[in-house]
């Protein structure tokens, strides 16, 4: 099993090797994770069922991570909120890659655009959870 801290170190090493601003690299690593780990899963959902897809993400979260809890809340017809809580460790690297992951998941779902994902609360800032609000 790979530890959370090891994942963060790997992401930082990849960004350092690429050089320049690490934020776009972390974002791209999250997008790559979505492409790789969600392959085929999003095929089961229609673009108009983005909410159903993200509601199922709590099961996906448990399949890939043995820590934390992910929940989804529908905010409107084309908007929703993912909340990730109960992490023993956290890092801004993970948050940036998380935004890339959710954006790519929306693209893979062929959600109508424009796609926007923003982190509105963060463990790293002392909040009780990392919260990502999405619009499409």
Could you give a short description of this structure?
The protein has five helices and four strands; from the N terminus they run ααααββαββ.
Distance between the termini: 35 Å
Low-confidence stretches: none
Question: What's the CATH class label?
Answer: Alpha Beta
How does the overall form come out from the CA principal axes? globular
**Helix/sheet category:** alpha+beta
Count of helices? 5
**CATH fold-type name:** H-NOX domain
Average of the residue pLDDT scores: 88
Biggest beta-sheet profile:
4 strands, antiparallel
Would you kindly provide a written description of the structure presented here, covering whatever features stand out?
- This protein is α+β, with helices and mostly antiparallel strands and 136 residues long.
- The model has no long low-confidence stretch (mean pLDDT 88).
- Strands 1-2-4-3 form a 4-stranded antiparallel β-sheet.
- The N and C termini lie far apart (35 Å).
- It is 46% helix and 21% strand.
- The protein has a single domain, classed as Alpha-Beta Complex (H-NOX domain).
């Amino acid at each position: 099993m790979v530890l959370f801290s090891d994942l963060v170190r790997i992401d930082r090493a990849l960004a350092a090797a690429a050089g320049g601003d690490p934020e776009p690299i972390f974002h791209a690593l999250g997008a790559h994770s979505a492409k790789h780990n969600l392959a085929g899963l999003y095929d089961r959902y229609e673009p108009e069922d983005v909410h159903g897809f993200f509601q199922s993400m709590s099961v996906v979260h448990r399949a890939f991570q043995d820590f934390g809890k992910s929940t989804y809340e529908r905010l409107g017809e084309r908007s929703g909120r993912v909340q990730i809580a109960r992490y023993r460790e956290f890092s801004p690297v993970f948050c940036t890659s998380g935004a890339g992951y959710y954006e790519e998941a929306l693209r893979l779902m062929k959600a109508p655009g424009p796609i926007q994902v923003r982190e509105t609360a963060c463990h790293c800032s002392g909040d009780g959870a990392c919260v990502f609000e999405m619009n499409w």
